[in-house]
User: What shape does this take?
Amino acid sequence: MIYLHHGSNVAIEIIDLSKSKPGKDFGKGFYLNPDSEQALLWAKSRVRTFDKGAPIVTSFEFDLELALKENLKIKVFENYSEE
Assistant: This one.
């Protein structure tokens, strides 16, 4: 298990992929980050962009093996990458 973080200007209680928007870096999806500080920076950016809400970082316990068994499409970067 690892902890992954999502930065936003709204609280996320349940991941709802139907609320995902197309046109993101890797397409429609729910983006998580192992770095809570980077998630906080993103959350602050969302507040500035929408001039609404407060920066909120939601943390999730993530089981990669289970996610792969459920056939989720997952992109994992071990380091920062141009990809």
